[in-house]
Amino acid sequence: MSVEAGQFMNAVEAIGLRKVYKAGKKTVCALDSIDIAVAKGRLFSFLGRNGAGKTTFVKIASTLLLPTSGSVRILDHDVVNETARVREDIALVPQDVRPYYHLTPRETAHSYLRIRGLAREEAASRTQWVLDEMGLSEYADVPCLQLSGGLQQRTMVAMVLATLAPVMFLDEPTLGMDPMARRNVWKIIEEIRSRGSTVFLTTHYLDEAERLSEELAIISRGKILFRGSVRELKVIVGADYRAIMNRNVPRELLSGFDTIVEDGGRLLVLTTREGALSLADAASRAGYEISVGPVTLEEAFIRLVGSSEIDEA
Amino acid sequence: MKLRLQLRAVGTFLMINGIIALRRQTIVLVSISLAPFTFIYFLYLVSPRAELPFGVVGAIVFTTVFTGSMLLNDSAYLRLERHLQAIYVASPVMAVSYAAGMALSELIFILPPLVVLFVVLGFVVHITPAILLSMLCIVILTWIMASSLGFMVSSFFKQMREIWPIASLIFSVISIVPPIFYPITAIPANYRWIAYFAPTTYSALLGDSVVGIVHVSAFIQTLYVGGLVGATLMFIGIASVFTRWREK
């Protein structure tokens, strides 16, 4: 659940945030009256399809972009009127960021910590810590030019997470990383959160959001569709279990189930635990393959965002 | 404390963009040095020997102005292609610290060719400590002017493909077209006023008069100083107002 202003200090608080772009002769509303409150010390995920408005929000909240109207406050400081103060408290991993190719991961992280004001020794020890945690020690002194895209991305995430800034914005931080590297990043994100940092994450990996988030928001076409916990989202989509079947199963087998989503070449039936088990029983007796399990965040997301886009059409 | 943080940021940018980059990409020095020495060689071949000092002073001004072009390219590249500037915007680092660190880095790259050019200048004219000091002041003011212009212009680019033609156009207009490699008297008197619109004209005219290859009155020399200082302050002012550190 979101935290009301005044109850605790919010790390990130947006009220009526709106951003309108001019794209040629057209006006595009990238964000439309966004209200978000993220309590201090929490991990918040911001989910949505490409172009939904996630990065625009992150850019405004991290002082890269001016809003059209509305406000964003970081630890009670306004991002427009108290920009310098806000910048002392934040750190950002932008989307698609790449390191200086002539620097090594060690130099990349160390120089950034120095730039942010850390003493040489503190910067050196924190650099070593983050390189170890991110599994980068082996490559610490290799120029980034010689590293793969995934290792370069890890370098950039390491560089920013090492700051232990009070509020961190991570815009798709694990894009292009292998599964083990992603888990290293998750581990260190959880570590910095336990040290008191607030983490604002955008990601397309919904397993990542499900694993890490305490709360999340889903945005579609500039508007917030949902705000709450993963569990609350599953309640909203009206199911906690799902059954996956081949799309050519007879429809009479599915009678009595309201929420059936076509997902590629298969059918996704969202239902209760009892409903899923009775469907599994019926399908097995009729000789059809079926897979039953708890609804994932990804399935709930597809259901919510998909139906909102159908409604708008 | 905050000033200390900004100074540390400037020093660190100088280290990572200038000193470490130069150590690992020495080949860049060759390409940077090539252009001014090519101009000198060309002038040596086609001009009367007496005009060679104009070419050397011009090469010093040209090389210094080139830092603006390099800064424009580098800062646009780091912002658009590597998305690194965003990390510094969302941090306590001020735009001026980032720009100063980048500009100092570019200065590091032109130092070796500048030293060679000053040595060459010593062969073609008689240099006293006062002349050397005056020439260094001209170099510093020209560097600040070109860097301010380069950093400001770079902040307007939306994509990499725009950079090359626009950067080439701007820096050709201010470093090759004006009377930098040739005396201003080579321009017909009726059109000479146009040259005074180029800020680099003052760098070259002042340089020519300081090293004694053009003799002007103290009053005219003061006007040249005023022109160079004024142009530098104007570009600093324009850059501080119009540079886009944060997008709109």
Describe this structure as you would to a colleague.
The complex is a heterodimer of chains A (about 325) and B (about 250). Chain A is globular. Chain A has two domains: about 40-60 and about 75-235, Rossmann fold; about 240-295, 2-Layer Sandwich (Alpha-Beta Plaits). By secondary structure, chain A is α/β, with parallel strands linked by helices. Helices cover about 35% and strands about 30% of the residues of chain A. In chain A, helix 3 (about 105-115) packs across helix 4, helix 3 (about 105-115) runs parallel beside helix 5 and helix 5 runs parallel beside helix 6. Chain A has ten helices and 14 strands. By secondary structure, chain B is mainly α. Chain B has one domain (about 1-240). Chain B has helices at about 1-25, 25-45, 50-80, 85-90, 95-125, 130-155, 165-175, 190-195, 200-210, 220-240. In chain B, helix 3 runs antiparallel to helix 9. The radius of gyration of chain B is 18 Å and the shape is globular. The model of chain B has no long low-confidence stretch (mean pLDDT about 90). At the A-B interface, helix 2, strand 6, helix 3 and helix 5 of A face helix 1 and helix 4 of B.
Q: Looking at the structure, what is the overall shape of chain A?
A: globular
As a percent range, the share of helical residues of chain B equals: over 70%
Question: What is the CATH architecture descriptor of the largest domain in chain A?
Answer: 3-Layer(aba) Sandwich
CATH superfamily of the largest domain in chain A: P-loop containing nucleotide triphosphate hydrolases
Number of helices of chain B: 10
Please tell me how large the radius of gyration of chain B is: 18 Å
Structural class of chain A: alpha/beta
Largest interface, with Cβ-Cβ < 8 Å?
A-B, 35 and 29 residues
Question: What is the H-and-E element order of chain A?
Answer: EEEHEEHEHHHEHEHEEHEEEHEH
Cα-atom Rg of chain A, whole angstroms?
Answer: 22 Å
CATH class of the largest domain in chain A: Alpha Beta
How would you state the average pLDDT of chain B, rounded?
92
Would you give the CATH topology of the largest domain in chain A?
Answer: Rossmann fold
Strand order of the largest sheet of chain A: 6-7-8-3-9-10
Number of helices of chain A: 10
- The proportion of residues in beta strands of chain B is under 5%
Write the H/E string of chain B, N to C.
Answer: HHHHHHHHHH
